[in-house]
Design a protein that fits this description.
137 residues, mainly alpha, elongated
Length: 137
Amino acid sequence: MRKIPRKPRLLGSVAMLMLAAAVVSGPASISAVRAQTATPGPDKGAAGSRQFSENDVKAYANAMVKVQEISVKWRDELRASGDPSAATAIQQKAESEAVAAVKGEGISVEKYNQIALATETDADLRNKVLDYISRAR
């Protein structure tokens, strides 16, 4: 049986969507994330957060909220699908909606991914994103 090459994921892995879900889940979670991330990572710090404009960070935060909403919307249907091809189709629909949501916020998917990766090691940037998310709610 010949393997069909998979279309590359534009927004990264499902883990990235789950990160969005965890971050946007509420004020208590935001406080917990801040408490766990009070110190910057060893390689980044304040310099890393300056590589993105305030508008990019705001757009990322708004897009992240929308991506999380899309993830929640499709989660139950994905869990209920018993057929792998149906699950793939659902994932593709969710990803298409997520890409449209990101672009709708005026940020490229590439920039969204860059900021998402930077928030993993840059506590200052992560806290800025969390602040914008809490304001957006």
